[in-house]
Amino acid sequence: MEDDYFSIEAILAENQKLQCTFKYDIADMGHIGGGNERDLKALSKRQIPLWLAYTIIYSDWADFTIPTPFSSKVRNALKAESRSVRLSSLVGAGGLWYGFGKTIMEMLSDDQGLELSETLTKAFVARLTEIVDQAQHFAALGAAGSSRPGGDATSAFREGLDGTERELFSLAQESTRRSKKWYEDHNKARR
Amino acid sequence: MSLPQSLRTSVIPEELELIACQELIEIVPFVAMDKTVFISGEFGPLKPPIKSRIPLWMALNLKAKKKCRILAPDWMNVEYLQDRLNRETTQPEFSDLPFRFAEISRILLDAAPDDIDNVDKLRSLLKDLREARQSKSREGLAKLDHSELSLPNLCSMEINEIRPVFIRSMGVMTQLVRTPAQDP
What we know:
The complex is a heterodimer of chains A (191) and B (184). Chain A has helices at residues 8-13, 50-58, 72-80, 87-91, 97-107, 110-140, 151-159, 163-184, and strands at 17-22, 45-49, 62-64. Chain A is mainly alpha-helical and 191 residues long. A three-stranded antiparallel sheet of chain A has the order 2-1-3. In chain A, helix 5 (97-107) packs antiparallel against helix 6 (110-140). Chain B is globular, with a radius of gyration of 21 Å. The longest helix of chain B is centred in the C-terminal third of the chain and has 24 residues, at 119-142. Chain B: Residues 13-71 form the DNA replication complex GINS protein PSF2 N-terminal domain.
């Protein structure tokens, strides 16, 4: 999520591929993206890792298509009911959907970028309450492993959290657990 | 950073309790004592049966030795808290309570229940207050944006409880908001 060079999270968020369409013939670069030919032809499409895509796109050698995790299908689903979208399955286990989105957003032109930013922010806020609610619920249950309540919808939501949301979940759970313990540790002999 | 991970995110409730012990409270001493000088100020002299204002930790110490009677602070009675609870449930904003009311009320209810009237009623009122306020801070979560959050009258224990989540999520949102015209 951060721009920090040493942020492990930022590195992990770049563990995604972008579909790029090359604009020019590039000699001796056919191996990029796992191709077999010797040269890269113009208009050929390749899946380029995000960290490499930066350079290629900023140097104007290629255009990229918005990747599926941020396609209009996903955006519409988020608009309809953001809680029912499984972000984790969009970016793979432990993937960082928001981090990926932020990277894409920075490469887009202003109009598209603002639209994506709005989508990301709205999805985040809409899902946040549910995350904290569930975290508090689980903190109240005490030790993990007791019966899993809430039915399918809530457990599906939990599995669909992306890496950033998982971190928030555990933060909320930990602080709730701590406060709850303090509030309930009543009758112990004082000093 | 040599602190364990669990202590890095925020202050723990026990530490807040310790801080709350610096607040002043009125007692009726049973023993006479000369003026005592601390870094935080001078307290006493204690002359029974004249009321005296001393730090809470000192009052607790004297109380444990049965050398004083603690007078509940003026907000810690059934009428006041009932009034606040009514406001809490009827009005959208947080009602104003002392900043460290959660800590102080708990300490006093634990350490000096015999000096306070209607202990059980107070306990249940405090619990209701806590729950009503909790649901409000939950609503605050839905209104979160990246730059600011204003929740007046939130007390220290509640701030501490929501701090890690709010800070982290505002951090995430700062990253997600696109600032126009940042072209290189």
